[in-house]
From TrEMBL:
<comment type="similarity">
    <text>In the C-terminal section; belongs to the transpeptidase family.</text>
</comment>
<feature type="transmembrane region" description="Helical">
    <location>
        <begin position="110"/>
        <end position="130"/>
    </location>
</feature>
<dbReference type="InterPro" id="IPR036950">
    <property type="entry name" value="PBP_transglycosylase"/>
</dbReference>
<dbReference type="GO" id="GO:0008658">
    <property type="term" value="F:penicillin binding"/>
</dbReference>
<feature type="domain" description="Glycosyl transferase family 51">
    <location>
        <begin position="157"/>
        <end position="331"/>
    </location>
</feature>
<keyword id="KW-0812">Transmembrane</keyword>
<keyword id="KW-0808">Transferase</keyword>
<dbReference type="InterPro" id="IPR001264">
    <property type="entry name" value="Glyco_trans_51"/>
</dbReference>
<feature type="region of interest" description="Disordered">
    <location>
        <begin position="61"/>
        <end position="81"/>
    </location>
</feature>
<protein>
    <submittedName>
        <fullName>Penicillin-binding protein</fullName>
    </submittedName>
</protein>
<dbReference type="GO" id="GO:0030288">
    <property type="term" value="C:outer membrane-bounded periplasmic space"/>
</dbReference>
<comment type="similarity">
    <text>In the N-terminal section; belongs to the glycosyltransferase 51 family.</text>
</comment>
<keyword id="KW-0121">Carboxypeptidase</keyword>
<dbReference type="Pfam" id="PF00912">
    <property type="entry name" value="Transgly"/>
</dbReference>
<keyword id="KW-0472">Membrane</keyword>
<keyword id="KW-1133">Transmembrane helix</keyword>
<keyword id="KW-0645">Protease</keyword>
Length: 800
């Protein structure tokens, strides 16, 4: 046998060498099957190896002890513990890696070894995944399906969000400035990276951290293209890994020009525009081939976040300018433009054409669709999903209630184009918005007056009632309803609006609520310690957003003014309706919402709203507040709002302007039954605070708003299923004076009183004896002088 079987050592592979070739080159070589000189020549050259035949001859040259000659230790069982022990081989392997020297040098060698091993393992994993993951078919469904929006029944269609409006063009039609702008904005290493850019990810993290804002992203243009065209919007590590693998594959299969062309034809630019050609038409009214460098930079800016960098949004310039400058600077660095060109737009952005009208948003339904879009974004759905994901959105809007809301507003609104109306219905106990009228035509005025803050006037007094009852006062608390009201010699309030400016004298809180007496409510919060701040807290408990209340002005003492319950700052009708719904639900608050559920084009559920309630107002406080508000519609300022079901509510007529030149700025009625809460609001002008007088006659909240409320509610309520309010708790006061009914006028008997009568009759002292005239006219006139002051309003003052 020419070559022996090798069992140990680093040359164990020699057995695989074609031994005939070795023997053929050895002088005197013999057959491969017989021992001969070739064996001696071979092993004389390489030395004796462990396991070689002991009779190979003396011609072998040995430089040192062979493995078989080394002393072996034996175990208790008599077996050799040396060469055949796995543990010793591992230890030997470790010693060879660590080498000799101090511990830190060994540590360095080990770290280096593990780093190399890890890199090799990572490379092997990447190679395996690269071979295993195939490029999928393009998202054809993503490109073709439209998002549908439905009413709460899931059958009646409310509208749809624009499908991808796209016109693909070749890269040769895209100006060099647009190509450079996209690369400067999204992937500055585009021409040098291989689909992914590790350095770019690290650099983006550093730049965004040091700048304090998001200036650059870690995804390359290739990765973004892959994500849009081949993958879903799923947020997971597995999708990111797949995205990276596919990006490398796409890089290897397509040229950079092809990738950039596909990207610019696919990416979303906002306002329903997909691709650079439609985006150019949308924002500048011209084809992409005619774009200049500044317009290109603006389009590239929008790519990063189409909704945030929307040029048509309020305050767009302040949001766009930093990112726009970042793109221009990138174009300068790449040599696409000069520094002088970039400097021309250092403090301005290119102008855009007027926003295109879309029939999808025409009329009052446009306000609903716009709100749905905003709510979808707040739920972390992307613009791509909303406008092109083929979603099925079911809202909370009731088809019949929405229809009746529009009809009711149209039936009673005055013929004045400057007037704005809002009507919102919220379901108590859930917060579901069942109907919303925010304006006449969204395309003509994008302000949704159902969600825009407006001075609420006396509808805010309901929160003063809640605050007082929680603080130890009651509906029988005595209040000063005289007008004007003075404090420290200074006039602080007077009655107006639905109370018609009357002076009411001293009255209980229940009457003050029923008649909407301004001075009485100012007196109430003045009696309470930190009264205005407690009213604000009660409003928050009911559902008025804290962010709205926190930004309102306070006086020099850092607290809210005494006129806080009169509703001098803005509240959105939807928030007011929801706050009143909290009362209708017995003090249980739920946040209002309009998105009921969302599913994808396959029907798989993506989102479903979960109703969450919290007892924010004590049940007994809510019960007595409801009782007070029932008095408003039963016999107070809101009788025009009494519906077919048991109703509670409050009128509101707000004023604005300086004390010496105030005008009526808004007119409200907010009310509820056990199963539905609704707020109706009228205002005027661009900002919603212009004078209503002359445009809305009469302008009091107890008139047109209350009548609109009743007309709508009577059509949507079921008289046979009204529900019931809790009975009044009749909370007793432990603070403040209690109102007492004035003593009734003393009743005089018809029996004459002869003795006192002569003494009070001065004209006839000479009459010898009283005659028949004694019980006649002089008798009833006698008690008039003492009787007159007894029941008048000053009498309660004497009880203080």
């Amino acid at each position: 046998m020419c070559c022996p079987v090798l069992t140990y050592g680093a040359v164990c592979y020699i057995e695989t060498i074609h031994r005939s070739s070795i023997c053929a080159n050895t002088p005197g070589g013999v057959s491969r099957d017989t021992d001969g000189p070739c064996d001696s020549a071979f092993f004389g050259r390489f030395g004796t190896l462990d396991g070689a035949d002991p009779h190979l001859g003396s011609s072998m040259e040995v430089d040192g002890p062979l493995a078989t000659q080394r002393k072996r230790t034996t175990t208790k069982s008599g077996r050799a513990a040396g060469g055949s022990g796995f543990g010793n081989r591992v230890k030997g392997f470790g010693r060879r890696i660590g080498g000799r020297g101090p511990w830190w040098s060994k540590l360095i060698r080990w770290v280096a070894f593990l780093g190399v091993a890890g890199a090799l393992a990572l490379a092997a994993t990447f190679f395996i995944l690269y071979r295993a993951i195939a490029i999928p078919d393009a998202n054809a469904d993503f490109q073709t399906q439209t998002t549908q929006v439905y009413y709460s029944d899931g059958k009646h269609k409310l509208g749809e969000f624009a499908r991808q409006d796209r016109e693909s063009i070749s890269i040769d039609e895209v100006p060099a400035s647009m190509q450079a702008a996209a690369i400067a904005a999204e992937d500055r290493s585009f021409y040098s990276n291989r689909g992914i850019d590790i350095k770019g990810i690290i650099r983006a993290a550093r730049d965004n951290t040091t700048s304090g804002s998001v200036q650059s992203g870690g995804s390359t243009i290739t990765q973004q293209y892959v994500k849009i065209l081949y993958l879903t919007q799923e947020r997971s590590y597995s999708r990111k890994v797949k995205e990276a693998i596919l990006s490398v594959k796409i890089h290897n299969q397509l040229s950079k020009k092809e990738i950039l062309e596909g990207y610019l034809n696919t990416i979303y630019f906002g306002n329903g525009a997909y691709g650079v050609e439609v985006a150019s038409q949308t924002y500048f009214g011209k084809p992409a081939s005619k774009l200049n460098y500044a317009q290109s930079a603006l389009l590239a800016t929008i790519i990063n976040s189409p909704s945030y960098y929307d040029p048509y949004a309020e305050g767009a310039k302040d949001r766009i300018q930093p990112r726009f400058s970042y793109v221009l600077n990138g174009m300068v660095k790449s040599g696409a433009i000069t520094a002088e060109q970039a400097a021309k737009f250092s403090d301005r952005i290119p102008s855009v054409v007027d926003k295109k009208n879309s029939s999808r948003f025409s009329g009052s339904k446009g306000y609903l669709l716009s709100l749905v879009q905003n709510q979808m974004q707040s739920l972390d759905f992307t613009d791509d999903q909303i406008y092109g994901g083929g979603l099925r959105i079911v809202t909370t809007f009731d088809y019949n209630k929405q229809k009746k809301a529009i009809e009711s507003v149209k039936a009673l609104r005055p013929d004045a184009k400057e007037l704005h109306q809002a009507l919102v219905s919220v379901q108590p106990g859930t917060g579901a918005v069942r109907a919303m009228y925010g304006g006449r035509d969204y395309l003509k005025n994008q302000v949704n007056w159902a969600t825009a803050p407006t001075q609420p006037g006396s509808t805010f007094k309901a929160f003063a009632v809640i605050a007082a009852l929680e603080d130890g006062y009651s509906l029988t608390t005595r209040l000063n309803g005289n007008s004007p009201l003075f404090k420290d010699g200074k006039e602080i309030a007077f009655n107006q609006g639905d109370s018609l400016g009357k002076s009411f004298g001293f009255i209980p809180l229940s009457t003050a609520t029923q008649e909407s007496v301004n001075t009485a409510f100012v007196d109430l919060v003045d009696q309470m310690e930190d009264g205005p701040d407690k009213v604000i807290k009660a409003a928050q408990q009911a559902g008025i957003p804290k962010r709205l209340l926190d930004r309102e002005r306070k006086n020099e003492n850092g607290s809210f003014p005494l006129v806080t319950p009169l509703g001098y700052f803005g509240v959105a009708p939807v928030d007011m309706a929801n706050a009143y719904a909290t009362l209708a639900a017995g003090g249980k608050r739920a946040d209002w919402f309009v998105i009921q559920k969302v599913s994808d084009y396959r029907g798989d559920s993506l989102y479903k709203h979960e109703v969450k309630t919290k007892q924010t107002i004590p049940e007994d406080v809510a019960a007595d507040t409801i009782a007070a508000l029932q008095g408003v519609v039963r016999s107070g300022t809101g009788t025009n709002g009494n519906t077919v079901c048991t109703t509670a509510g409050k009128t509101g007529t707000a004023t604005a302007g300086p004390d010496d030149d105030q005008h009526v700025s808004s007119s409200w009625f907010a009310g509820f039954t056990p199963k539905l809460a609704t707020a109706v609001m009228y205002n005027r002008g661009k900002l919603g605070n212009a004078d209503l007088e002359g445009y809305m006659v009469p302008f009091f909240g107890g008139q047109i708003p209350a009548k609109t409320f009743k007309l709508y509610m009577d059509q949507v309520l079921d008289p046979s299923d009204c529900g019931t309010f809790p009975p009044p708790a009749n909370l007793q006061s432990d603070k403040g004076p209690v109102y007492r009914e004035p003593a009734p006028k003393p009743e005089r008997t018809t029996k004459p009183k002869p003795k006192p009568e002569p003494t009070r009759t001065t004209p006839s002292p000479t009459t010898p004896k009283p005659t028949a005239p004694q019980p006649t006219a002089p008798d009833p006139t006698q008690p008039t002088t003492p009787a007159t002051p007894a029941p008048t309003t000053p009498s309660p003052q004497s009880r203080e």
